[in-house]
Amino acid sequence: MVATSSPGAHLRRRSERIEPVPASPPIRVAIVGGGRGGTALLDALHQIGTIEIVGITDKDPTAPGLRRAQEINVTIYERIADLIKIPGLNLVMDLTGDPAMKSVLQEQLMPETDLVSGQASRLLRTLVQHESALQTELLHAEKLAGIGSFAAGIAHDMNNPLQLILGLAENLTEETDLDAVHLQARDIIDAVKRTTAICRDLTSYSRRASLRQDCLIAINGKLDEALKIARYAVALQDIEIRKLYQPDVVVKGNPDELLHVFVNLITNAVQAMEHHGTLTLETKAMADATQVRVSDTGSGIAPELLGRIFEPFFTTKPPGKGTGLGLYNIKNVIHHMNGTIEVESHVGRGSTFVLTFPSESSAGERTTPP
Amino acid sequence: MSEFKSGFFVGGESSNGRVLIVDDEPDIRKVVRMTLQKAGYDVLEAENGEKAIEVINSGENRLLLDVIICDIRMPKVNGIEAIAYFRQNYPRVPLIVLTGFPDTDMATSLLRQGVVDYLVKPVEGDKLKASVARAMEQRELAHL
Prior knowledge:
The complex is a heterodimer of chains A (about 375) and B (about 140).
Chain A: E1 4-5, E2 11-15, E3 27-32, H1 36-46, E4 51-57, H2 64-71, E5 76-77, H3 80-84, E6 91-94, H4 101-108, E7 114-116, H5 118-147, H6 151-172, H7 178-206, E8 215-218, H8 219-233, E9 239-244, E10 250-253, H9 255-272, E11 277-285, E12 289-295, H10 303-306, H11 326-336, E13 340-346, E14 350-358
Parallel strand pairs in A: 3-4, 3-6, 4-5, 6-7, 9-11
Antiparallel strand pairs in A: 1-2, 2-13, 8-10, 11-12, 12-14, 13-14
Helix pairs in contact in A: 1-2, 1-5, 6-7, 8-9, 9-11
Chain B: H1 6-10, E1 17-22, H2 26-38, E2 41-46, H3 49-56, H4 61-64, E3 65-70, H5 79-89, E4 95-99, H6 104-112, E5 117-120, H7 125-143
Parallel strand pairs in B: 1-2, 1-3, 3-4, 4-5
């Protein structure tokens, strides 16, 4: 990984998209077949810096793999022959599942190009699907581990309305003024509704991320939702919260996963401030990208640690306090959304996590409810 | 319950005592006030530790305040900081913690610091009144 320095003696910037400089040229790969297998492989290989996907093809122009390729700027070829004869191509991956395709490809391949087909490509597809399932499980496990830290916040928010309910109910056993009885009964109903809302928020958050197709997400609403959840994990009452939202900003992705990303970033930011400081949430739609910035005025990240924060199991928290999977999972979710995540940090002054996504047009497309 | 009343010493008061409830939730202050007023106490309110310190340092409260009931998780000056201040500056005013989060380590630590009771919400009115009565007895002993 390479860290690029920014102005200021202690300011450090780290982007998880900057991969190690490969010692040898990237492996140039072509994908034949844009069905489920081809799409899964495209997604997996796209995340690896040492692999270059030169193109994809499918006889069906509506194949999901071709749509995905368009989203991540991989070239789509109409004719197989045009794709597999690209000079310098190292590997052709046949994901068509068509037994006749292997011999067709073998006849046309350049001598320096290898072919993965038949059972070998089935095995590869199985591995990719297994890896994807593991990522999902890891995300869920880390989320559930994090919910343990919600205990204090949940107890606070549940037991306060319960105290009100108990106190009013006790009073009602002796209350003779009918107006007061009505008033207190209404207070009890409101308190029960508040308690129910806490349960609803938490059960919704703790569920497994839905497997539904990616959709457009109204990002300002998702940040507000994340703030509601994060306050169970960290005390926000002494944090000044600045919202610099551009209206109607949307990104495409899985709303459950993005909520988890925001909860994690907000929780980390508040913990870095030791519960006193300013949390800034900013959204911005630019010409070709959408940006979300989560900034804190906390302790910052030491330059020697900055390069490791996206590594799995890396944590600066005491044993039992952090899984070390938070930022690692965030990186994976952002990758899946074809976005990038960068961090700018200044020791003693705070950190800013910058999430950049490809821009989306909201016209006529479905968004998640706020 | 003890016959001791703070008013007996400073004159002019007829209540069972003066209690300060410190909690950031207005609803909690409301029900505690309701419960204790019916039991004959004067009840003052503060929404955080900072306000509580202002209340105890204002006018006759320096002398008349008998018991403080304090939450832990509050903005500005939290319960732990406020309790430390009260123990240092008003060691003879008994303290009761009324919190939403049961934390054994914190309870042990606070009881060692001299807190009279560590109550976890929701607490029944009778239990709260009994706790305040115990605190009043301590207050009485402190005056002897």
